[in-house]
Each structure stands twice: as structure tokens, then as C-alpha cells.
Amino acid sequence: MYSPDQTKKLQQLSISLLKQDEKHPDQKNLNDLREVLRFHEHRYYILNDPLIADQEYDKLFKTVEKIEQEHPDLVTPDSPTQRVSKGLTKDFPPAPHLVPMLSLDNSYNEDDLRDWDRRVRELAKTDNIVYCIEPKFDGASISLIYENDLLSRGATRGNGVTGDDITTNIKQIRSVPLSAKFSDYGIQQIEIRGEVLINKTNFKKYNEQLAEQNLPPLANPRNAAAGTLRIKDPKEVGKRNLEAFLYHVSYFTLTPKHTLPEALQSHSGSLQMLWDLGFRSPMKEAKKFNGIEAIIQYCNDFEAHRDDLPYEIDGMVIKVDSIDMQDQLGMTTHHPRWAIAFKFKARQGTSKLRSVEYQVGRTGSVTPVAKIDPVSIGGVTVSSISLFNEDVIREKDLKIGDMVLVERAGDVIPYIVKPLAELRTGGETEIVFPTECPVCGHPLDKPEGEAVWRCNNINCEAQVVERIIHFTSKDAMDIRGLGDANIRKFFELKFLKDLPGIYELPFDQIRAREGFGEKSITNLQTAIEASKSQPLHRLIFALGIRYVGETTAKTLAHAVKYLPDLQNFSLEELQQLEDIGPKVAGSVYSFFHNWDSLEMLKKLESLGLQLKNEQKEIGSEGNLVGQTFLLTGTLPTLKRSEAEELIETNGGKIVGSVSSKLNYLIVGEDAGSKLEKAKKIPTVKIITESEFLQMVNR
Ligand code: IVH
């Protein structure tokens, strides 16, 4: 099967791949890795004559698993990781959902609910609507597939399209039956959705155990549940006593000759069915109502008693009960129109504002950060809170020494709601925003109409360091091994003073310092070398030009063959590029008309960076070979750049406009004129993101 030449080549390739850092694998190597794994499997399983050690095989295997975990879209059905129970797999393989796992639209007050009810009635063209309401469980969402009555797969939500296959861990949850008589309902295959939780008592017990072992406690039950699902030791998962509520049937097929069972014609019917089959559905908690006012009443009653429940809930979910009507209402790209979440009031706490510190960002923006006495809010300790800008401080009339009300918005980012003015003692002091940069002393400037104070000294150390951090970050030049801490350290030691300096690091001096092993130095050198051939759009993004995000960077890269050519674009010409307005154009224009920036580009080029726009490599294999694509609107799960990458790696080509040369237009929400144009050309197929993903995985 493999000629001696191929064998030699693949063995050499294995050796070079084994030298890579498995913790930070390069996705560029994915195909090579797979090729060598297949080769070694053949040596081992077929020829019985392995050429590498088992541990080396494992290392390569794990590297592939890691890349695939980070880029689920790159998983192919023939990847060595996709073999069933070969006994070598340790990570969670990807689990594509049968239908995308959408999220719910949120409402925060009674009027939001009334508006939603009105829209539902208008769309359904009837006032006679039965709603079913149940708790919104605050845990980790899961999807379960049962085939022929057996649990065949349990998965996390992941990115909504593909999750992680956590079947073994799911099997540790005792409230999930391993088999259920779906066949009694004529169901052959079914996908059900639910939430995994850890109840408050078990959560507390578990944290006590951690404390006994001097380990830090887990922040909240939600994180504890989500974290537990990802533990690689199923026994440990079993010990944590997870629970699962199943509340939604997302997909099913019937056995031949069976007609749709009544249970599947209403949401309440499916909750009843799940309950009868041995699942813990919220059948007991759910209630049906005829009008929105009764729903509102039920929400308020439930909220008043939320703390009496043994587990955390963060709201209620209201669903149209009839499945026919649900289908009629359909969904937006993000959420079903037939359901809405009613979010309970966020968790709040109070604390004392001790001081305000000022952080200088990479564009010179000065952000005030409040330092408060640590306070625990909904299980998370908060001590530092961004105040965004000076106006926020003034509008809220904050003073040092104030007692402040703190809330965790969206349950994650904490913010100060207001000072508790009634508790003031008179000893509070004004917050004085600095007039000079706290790092370099340069006078701060606030342009007309902007809220943010800036340090305009582009050589300000804080900015330089932040720029270098941005340059090396994952979505930019992706120089692993040169993390924030090293950058700060190298800067302090004067080993690194600007972006080109990354490519001239004094490795001899670094080597002489404690804490830098030969291996980490080699890895760093490899990563720096590899970054030189990053595609042009990444370099443009990495430069940190104000307002130039990943999408704009791609637009700019598409517009030129050689980066410095952007000097020749007038403001008007820049604005003619897709999605570039006056603000972005102005910023790009000044960057390319600034002597320092141009000198820096020259320097980077002389150090070996790629400023030419290499024609992107279009895969010669894949399901999309020979097809042309164009995107319009916002896709539900994929970023535009991700979709473009998927098209190209699968052999498809992206074209610039709608014409008879276009095969597929992928449409998202708020699609523009391209859609209208495409509708007029009969040969152009108009598809959704999920249809596109199906094409890719076919
Ligand atoms: S229904 C297609 N019901 O909330 C609609 N979701 O913010 C499927 N959640 O991703 C969701 N309790 O993880 C539904 N009773 C409940 C829920 C619930 C919690 C979660 C779910 C969803 C998220 C949306």
C-alpha cells in the first residue's frame, strides 16, 4: 500500500510533526497529521510492524483531536478520531446536531411579554392561543438521541450546530434513562433537548469537599454542571450527582406505517410523553394558560419563590403549545418565534467603592476601573468593575467611598448600577479623571463627540505593549508561546520594544534567564517563524489599525496585491470597498499616510513577513469543488470569515457579486440587495446556513 519512498517520507514527516507543541497545534498541519496517523495505523494493525512508539502515536492523535476540538468545522468523517471505540480516544469527538440548537429570545418585563403575545397572535392570525409555561433551568444544555429505544448519543450544545459527544458522561446521570420505549409511540429516532443541573445541596456539598482538599470552590451551580460534563473520568462525573430536565423534542422519525402520535402534537403532550417514558420532564412544573395576563401572573409568582426550589432557575420559558402553530410561526435565524424566555431580575449585591484605576488600551483609550471590596454576587466574587468612560462616572454620580449597587449583567459582566446615595456619610470624595496618561504622562485628549479620553502618544509604553499583545493574539498572527506575561516581561527587560522587535528577539539573552527552557524557546522560535507566512488579512488585522476588525481586514486584503499599495487609495476609493464607511476609511487612510507606519511595514517585510497577497489556496478536494458562493446577511452561527474559510477549504470559490456565474447564495438575517438580485437569476440557488453546512458535511 505504501511504497518505500512514501514510507520514508511519511516517517520523516512524523518525526517533524512530533517536534511540534501539542498544546498549541497548528491547524495547517491537520491533513499531514491525519495522513501519518493513517499510515501508522496501517503499520500497526495491518502490517504488525509499527514504526513509532504507542505514546508517539497518542501524541499525534491528541494533536489532531485538539485541532478538531478547536475547529469542529474541520472534522471529516474519515478522520482517525472518528473511529468508534478504538480504545485510544480520550477527548470528546464532535457531535453534529440533527437540527441546530437555537437559543431563546429574552424578555425582561411584563410589557415585553405582552408585545411578544401580540406578535404571536398577529402571525398566527388568531387570539385563541394556548401557552405552556415552565421554568428556565440555569444549567448546561444537552441533546440526547435515542434510536430504536436506546440512548445512542448525548451531546453538549457546542456552537449550536456541532457539540461534543459526551455520551459516556451523560450515562452517569441517573435521571437519564439508558433506554425508553419510544417505539410505543411509533418513534424510531428522536432528538430531545434539556438541561443538566447540579442541585443547590449537592453543589454546596461538593464545594465543601473541595475546601477540605484546599482547592478553590466552583463559582456557581451552572459552571459546576457544565464543567462536570466535560470531565474525562466518568466515575468522577457520577460522584457529582448531576440531574437532567428534558423539555423539548427537536427531531424525530416514525417507524414505517405509523402516524403522528397525539403526544407529539403539543408541547405539553411531549412533556407528558417524556415523563411517562421515565424522563424528568418539567411536567409537574409546567402549566397551560389561555392568555398572557395569566402567564405574567405565573411568572411573578414563580420568581417570588425561585429560592425555594432545590435548583437554580433564571427565568421562565413560555411556549406556544400547539406544534402545528409552532411550525406556522417558524423561527428567525437565532430563535423560535413560538417561544420566549422571561428572565428574572439579575442578581445584585452591594459593596464599597475604594478606588478607581485607569487602564490604557492599545489605541490609547483610558478606561476607568472601579476597585470595590470583594462581594459575592450569585456565586461569583467581584472586586474589579469596568466603568467604561468618564461620562459613566458623571452620569452615575459615583464617589470614592460610596456604597454601590453591583449587578452581574447577563449573569457574567458585573457593573455598577448606582451609588447608594442615602448611605453617604459626607466623607466621600470626587473621582478625579486624570488629565495626563497614567503610564507615560502625555496629556490626554478627548475628541469632540467622543466619550473616551485618549493618550495620543503612540509610543506610550502601555499602548505599545497592548499592541504587541494584540499582534500576537490567536485571531491575529497567532504567535503561541509569546503570551501576555512574556510580552510584558520582555518589554520590561528591553528585549522587545515594538512590533518588528518580535522578529528580532535576543534569544541568547532570553536563554540566559531563568524560567526559559530550551523547549519553550524552540517552540517560540517556531511559532514566530510560522507567523511570517500568515495570510495578509491576518497581518492587517494584527496591525491594530483603529476600527479595522477581522472583516474589514479581509476586505482590505482582497483589495490589493501588495499591502503598501493601500497608500494609493483615496478616502473615496476606500469608502467604495464593502462595508467601509467614512470613519474606517479615515483611520485606514491616516495609517497608510503616516511615515512611522510605513517604515514599520518596510521593516516587517525586511524581516521576512508576507506583505504580498498570496492567492488563497483553494482546496482541491471537498464537496464544494467547482462551485461558486457568495454570502449575504448575518448567519445564525458562523462568522462570515468562518463561512468563507469553510467554502475555500472544501474546494469552493467565493465570488464578488451576484451573476449567472454564481452557483449558491448563502443568506442570513437582514439579507440585502444581493438576495433580490439572485432571485431574478434562476440558476442561482439560494440556501441557508444549515443547508450550506449539510453540503459541506455531505
Ligand atoms: S426551550 C428551540 N425550555 O435556555 C427552543 N430552553 O436561552 C429550545 N433553557 O439554549 C429551548 N430551560 O439551554 C427551553 N424550559 C426550557 C429551558 C430552556 C432552560 C435553556 C436552553 C436554551 C437557553 C436559551
What does it look like?
The structure is a single chain. By secondary structure, this protein is of the alpha+beta class. It is 35% helix and 20% strand. It is built from 24 helices and 24 strands. A five-stranded mixed β-sheet has the order 2-11-10-3-9. A five-stranded antiparallel β-sheet has the order 14-13-12-16-17. β4 (140-147) and β5 (150-156) form a beta hairpin. α1 packs across α2 and α17 crosses α18 (550-559). The radius of gyration is 28 Å and the shape is globular. 2-(butylsulfanyl)adenosine (IVH) binds next to β3, β7, β8 and β11.
State the share of residues found in helices, binned by percent: 25-40%
Ligands bound to this protein structure:
2-(butylsulfanyl)adenosine
Give the rounded overall mean pLDDT.
88
Number of helices: 24
- Using only CA atoms, what is the Rg? 28 Å
Structural class: alpha+beta
What percent of residues are in strands?
Answer: 15-25%
Number of strands: 24
- The global form is globular
* Low-pLDDT regions: 83-89
- Quick one: biggest sheet? 5 strands, mixed
Enumerate the strands of the largest sheet in spatial order, edge to edge or round the barrel: 2-11-10-3-9
Report the span from N to C terminus: 27 Å
Task: Walk me through the topology.
Elements: H1 4-18, H2 30-46, H3 54-70, E1 94-96, E2 106-107, H4 110-124, E3 131-137, E4 140-147, E5 150-156, E6 162-164, H5 167-170, E7 187-197, H6 200-212, H7 221-229, H8 234-239, E8 243-254, H9 267-276, E9 287-289, H10 292-304, E10 313-320, H11 323-329, E11 339-343, E12 348-360, E13 366-377, E14 380-386, H12 390-396, E15 399-400, E16 403-409, E17 413-419, E18 429-430, E19 444-445, E20 454-455, H13 461-472, H14 484-492, H15 507-511, H16 518-531, H17 536-542, H18 550-559, H19 571-575, H20 582-591, H21 595-606, E21 628-632, H22 640-649, E22 653-654, E23 664-667, H23 673-679, E24 685-687, H24 689-697
Parallel strand pairs: 2-11, 21-22, 21-23, 23-24
Antiparallel strand pairs: 1-6, 3-9, 3-10, 4-5, 4-7, 7-8, 10-11, 12-13, 12-16, 13-14, 15-18, 16-17, 19-20
Helix pairs in contact: 1-2, 2-3, 17-18
The structure holds 2-(butylsulfanyl)adenosine.
